[in-house]
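Retro notes, item 3 of 5
We never archived the inputs for the dioxothiomolybdenum(VI) ion complex last cycle. Fixing that now. Sequence and ligand:
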Amino acid sequence: MKMSTAIGPNALDDGAQGVVGRPLDRVDGRLKVTGGARYAYEMSQGPAAAYGFVVEASIGRGRIRSIETRAAERAPGVMLVLTYQNAPEQGTGNHHDAHPVLTGPEISHYGEPVAFVVAESFEQARAAAYLVQVAYDPLPGKFALRDGKDLAYVPEGGNAPADSAVGDFTGAFAEAPVQIDVTYTTPLQSHAMMEPHATLASWEGDKLTLHTANQMLSQGRQTVAKTLKMPPENVRLVSPFIGGGFGGKLWVNADAILAAIAARRLNRPVKTALTRQQVFHVTTHRSDTIQHIRLGADPNGRILAIGHDVVSGNLGREQQYEGAAVQTRTLYAGANRLTRHRLAALDIPIASSMRAPGEAVGLLALECAMDELARKLDLDPIELRLRNEPAEDPEQHIPYSSRHLVACLQEGARRFGWDRRNPRPGQVREGRWLVGMGVAAATRGNPLRLSKANVRLGADGVVTVRMAMTDIGTGTYTILGQIAADMLGLPTEKIRVELGDTNFPEAAGSGGSFGAGSSGSALFDACNSLRAKLAGLAGMDPDKARFADGSITAAGQSKPLADLVGPGGIAADGEIVPGETLKNFSQQSYGAQFAEVGVDADTGEVRLRRMLGVFTAGRILNAKTARSQAIGGMIFGVGAALGEEMALDPRFGHFVNHDLAEYHVPVHADVPDVEAVFLPELDDKSNPLKSKGVGELGICGAGASLANAIYNASGARIRDYPITLDKILSVLPSQS
Ligand code: MOS
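Structure as it came back at the time:
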């Protein structure tokens, strides 16, 4: 079906089996905690695999002068050393559609693979990798965003236009009685998913199978085919379990291509995994940003002018920018508006999507600037947002599909005890702790992508769902089972969901918060087709038939589904095609983030004390997995506010802290009390499930709520993330 118009009442509203929405445990939970779920590196296929190890460039930019592989080739167990001198020619493109490796002597960034050593064991390959001697002619490079920003250019071909302008921003801002003119910066970030990138490649004739950790298998198949110059139908990607991605596995990475090339050369399966350290340079990261925000308001807090300029960086030939001003086009009212994204060409690894690309760091700036405006107006920050609630999308002049930001703010304020907050910063003290509360809005775009599904009811009464969708730890297996159960009137024990294989119908995969909506809608469509077929077999009107408890019922007649199915079972296909509702309605999910922090009055140390997110994201498909998604995202936001930062060595373009000891993500002790609540909502413009994306909503605004709480607690307004204690200490007023 095509998503052209609003969805009327449908079988999911009916909830015949009462399954969708329930907080069911993840169906793969037991497999995961018992080690039964096997990941790419644990797979085997055919003869015993050889093991590959990547050798990384140790300069930031330049040329390989010579590469000496003989010592490595003579090392125990080694059977192949691939370099640019013996690698095959490959297809090229941006990182979304090709990922050629070992293409020549040029080095474009630190850590770029320069060789791939394959041996009988991983240890032998790793030992031999250190015997590869590479001599370089280095060239000066541009590594730091601040060094590239003056030459930044207008990126082309992003998800959204780089610029937007409505009214006369410059004039309106200049004349606004109240002005905020601030620059926020966010650092380089790494996805830091649990499972490092890994691939097992094996060939049968000219057919390639890759067991690989990848979020978007159907897209990845195209990328592999284009890179290796082979027909897509000869490429199969398999990935039933993925240990997190956060965007770091959206695209095909070097592990997959190197393993495929080596396996073909050796006529033997080849397995490889990046080390944790290699993940930082060999795969993608999130760019740092410089964000200039200007808000002009009248004395009552009504925004007259809103401007957001963003500079991010990327490897020279790439066009993907960090869309940090995209939400500023739609979040608040205001007649005069200007947003611009610029891209600096740098000589560092490819910057790409990381959890809530755009909003996650855009809201770190915008939602703190709003807090600054509220302070300047002496207005409650929630009240400021209520006064700027738009009646329609303020740039596109189209209605919202659904928008309940105000309800989220008000319900959150009630639950969090916002009325106990002292609006003047630095006033509340408990022992050595300065205590404060902060609030921020959350919003995330709600995309829909083409997806297909196949559903089969077998003679045994078991339904099998198949699609090339992935579950990266989010609960996809579980929610798809719930949808099929309600649509077909069967208990979830009778539904088997099979994902993670490009032999199954094409699917959008897990990314951009489009996963559940897109795959679930394709499944919804397939189930509707199957319902029609079953009703036909039962001699019933499909529009009147009710499916529940394993039977189809119409006009007082009831028949068990199993009786309608022959030995071969009965199957149906479905698909969702994005349509006009994406153009005719401004689609976002919304929320309100609340944080309470303590700031040590002497050391500047920050402790999160409690956190609440109140969200609306259409129909919630599983209350437990949605809540877990939201909480996980909020904790991601805690990391963005307080700790996460890749430290760049500006001499070599090297990420110095390339491991999880030194790249600081929150741990249990950092996260005492986090709660997430979803308010009821149905969005009939979003998709037939009436759901909206949940995955990335939790991080949006979360970090800003901490930053605003730190300000409320201590009076320290830090505009350079992460907010580490040294920055707080440098501005903390003396308390003694
Ligand atoms: Mo997400 S950054 O699209 O995995």
